[in-house]
Amino acid sequence: MLEQYGVTRLEVDVDGSLSYPEPVLDQKDNAERHSSAKPLNCEEEHLMRVFYEQKIQEVCAAFKFPHKIQATAILYFKRFYLQWSVMEHHPKHIMLTCVYTSCKVEENHVSAEELGKGIQQDHQMILNNEMIVLQSLGFDLIVYAPYRSVKGFIEDIEEFCQARNGEQEKFKDLRETALLEVDKMMLTDAPLLYTPGQLALAGLRRSNAVHRVLDFEGYLHNLFSRQRTAYSVSQLGELMGTIDSLVEQLKIPTAKDMRHIDRKLKSCWDPSAQDENKKREKRSKHKSKRAASEMQGPVPEV
Amino acid sequence: MRREGFGVARVGGGGLGCVGVGDGGRARQQRWLQQYELVGKIGEGTYGLVFLARTKQHRKSSIAIKKFKQSKEGDGVSPTAIREIMLLREISHENVVKLVNVHINHADMSLYLAFDYAEHDLYEIIRHHREKLNLSINPYTVKSLLWQLLNGLNYLHSNWIIHRDLKPSNILVMGEGEEHGVVKIADFGLARIYQAPLKTLYENGVVVTIWYRAPELLLGAKHYTTAVDMWAVGCIFAELLTLKPLFQGVEVKATPNPFQLDQLDKIFKVLGHPTTEKWPTLVHLPHWANDQQHIQGHKYENTGLHTFVHLAPKSPAFDLLSKMLEYDPRKRITAAQALEHEYFRMDPLPGRNALVPSQPGEKIVNYPGRPVDTTTDFEGTTSIQPPQPPSGNAPPGSVSAQSVAASRAVARQMPAMVGGQRIPAASMAAFNAAAQPGMVGLNPANIPMPRGAAAQQQLRRKDPGVMQNPGYPQQKRRF
């Protein structure tokens, strides 16, 4: 079954029973194609999602959108693919719709046309997927990103360190690196698992490991002494450790990895094209550069 | 009623739906519409249409379905719809309207928001007293309505939401049933989370009625605070007491974002001229600083708010009202503070059913139900042959002054959801002059919907909101 429908096609009903919703292809076709078309495995789906999440960051950076837009878009994207497989909706399209929707929600409205033009993609595709994205998100659209928390904690840390004038520079470094760390976290499962405040602290701790601005452990104890929290400093430490390992495990796929996965995905959609692909691949073995740029998906050109 | 050709899926999951949960958010054809029995259209605005429907389940409940059109040509789901849904999905409070479901029509990419239906709203309640009963609203009812409005608003403000468009037609009151007489704040199309950057209304391209707009906004303040909602509550409080809008300025219609001199003038006339002593940040407000149209020079003696609202200047009610209408937004009373005000601690105490006083012997007002236009289907198409059209059936869109007056009681712009476009109909002036002595120049903020008026009038009698009220004496209502 898994092989037939891909990894995320299984549906669990309220009563715990499993069901397999409408197959992508009808039964007859399926039987014929079953032998040739191999669905993506979990790892490949995962790589593909990470690749396009990183693309979201590139696109948002190219448009000079605020950090918040990028974070919201990535969370939409992640939550969308909790419900769907990349074999059902191509992440290249969904990614753009997520950016578009994020702009609307964050009051930074950009028309679909403008967005499409900026990254040389058909804006109709963005609009076509808008409803399915909204629907898949259950219309739960408000997202809290860790970026604001980072800024808040920095102010608190400055106070904790009783920062004097002239020391501003090191806190700025602490913040900038923490923001970059949070950017990385956005590409992992961490934002689905931890709160913005926890992510922000984990980012600051990682940043402090580089800049050595303060006794972070001491700061955490101070922080906890001021606020009633549901967990202890050591529990927070454990949780930040998990976030650390998620960041360290993060592997951003190369264009080469993507080439392989994308080819496989194409054959899932249209198995007859597979032989075609193989032939072409042989022919253009030495022209891999061109192929690589094709596979890269939308490249921001602003 | 045309129901075919409706490729519609309902939104599953997320706890949004009460019906058909478990279809995993996937598109199913023609599913959701069959859950409802369409009764008719109850309103219309720039965003789209509002319908009344009933669920077909064991307990037939009434649902208001708000249909959003696509925003601009080719720019997907309307940002207003998105804003409203995203806020409503987060909030849950007895005094805030409840979003029951969201439906999608994939055929034309329109959204349908299903709400618990509220039979009344403050606009209609006030109007009923002013025009039909010629009698002020019971003090218990006024206090209960105000308390519940503040209770809902306090909830919103504690959750960092500013409503920004409070006015009588957006304050709903539940009809007969378990929640009879409970206030529901509606219409979050302009609401904002206030950590988000707040753009001015003009930039959002939305027109809101100016009568409830706070002075700092009229003077060009760019930032919204929760105090703007409290100003509006003050205006509504006064309107509940006197049955007419407190500050009825004549709106300047121009772009971009015109300076509303007349509205400010109306405020100054009642509250006196603002001074920098009482309102220090006044000097920073752009329209004041530029002395737009010599606004600083418009001097009025403080004639006294109490004479306008017929309250004793030392009464707790007046004290509360004047604290809501405080010029300086920083000094203006907050919703939380207002709930603690002495006014609410003295008899009559506010109650949950605002429409039915707890003391026996009090006269109970039987408010008419919301008019329903049963000639319009879900797609907004008005049928050309309504059932048994009475004589003088005016064609849609062309209504004489006479039939406007007649239809006013029958159909008007949907109050509940969104202050939609106002139609500066010349014919309204004549109507206002005739029907409301002393109220000439009343801005027709909620003027009737000139469509199928005559037909609705007949159907009106079947209105369930009226029929299901056997316990109370029928008020003299003229048709």
From TrEMBL, chain A:
Annotated signal sequence range: none
Matching Gene3D superfamilies: Cyclin-like (1.10.472.10)
This protein's record includes keyword Repeat: no
GO-annotated cellular components: nucleus
Lineage: Eukaryota, Viridiplantae, Streptophyta, Embryophyta, Tracheophyta
Region (Disordered): 266-302
Keyword hit for Cell cycle: yes
UniProt keyword annotations, A-Z: Cell cycle, Cell division, Cyclin
A Pfam family the protein falls into: Cyclin_N
Biased composition (Basic residues): 280-290
SUPFAM superfamilies, per database record: Cyclin-like (SSF47954)
A GO term for molecular function: cyclin-dependent protein serine/threonine kinase regulator activity
Single GO biological process annotation from the record: regulation of transcription by RNA polymerase II
Similarity comment: family membership: Belongs to the cyclin family.
Domain named Cyclin-like: residues: 54-135
Protein name: Cyclin-H1-1
PANTHER family for this protein: CYCLIN
Origin species: Ananas comosus
Automatic annotation (TrEMBL), chain B:
Cited Gene3D superfamilies: Phosphorylase Kinase, domain 1, Transferase(Phosphotransferase) domain 1
Substrates-to-products reaction catalysed: L-seryl-[protein] + ATP = O-phospho-L-seryl-[protein] + ADP + H(+); L-threonyl-[protein] + ATP = O-phospho-L-threonyl-[protein] + ADP + H(+); [DNA-directed RNA polymerase] + ATP = phospho-[DNA-directed RNA polymerase] + ADP + H(+)
All copies of domain Protein kinase, residue ranges: 36-344
Region: Disordered, residue numbers: 350-406, 449-479
UniProt entry keywords in alphabetical sequence: ATP-binding, Kinase, Nucleotide-binding, Phosphoprotein, Serine/threonine-protein kinase, Transferase
Domain of life: Eukaryota
Biased composition (Low complexity): 394-406
UniProt xrefs under InterPro entries: CDK, Kinase-like_dom_sf, Prot_kinase_dom, Protein_kinase_ATP_BS, Ser/Thr_kinase_AS
Gene Ontology MF, one: cyclin-dependent protein serine/threonine kinase activity
Biased composition (Polar residues): 373-384
Protein residues bound to ATP: K67
CC annotations in GO: mediator complex
Keyword set includes Kinase: yes
Pfam families listed in its UniProt record: Pkinase
Family as reported in the entry's similarity comment: Belongs to the protein kinase superfamily. CMGC Ser/Thr protein kinase family. CDC2/CDKX subfamily.
Protein known as: Cyclin-dependent kinase E-1
Species whose genome carries this gene: Ananas comosus (Pineapple)
Top-level taxonomy: Eukaryota, Viridiplantae, Streptophyta, Embryophyta, Tracheophyta
Originating gene: LOC109714700
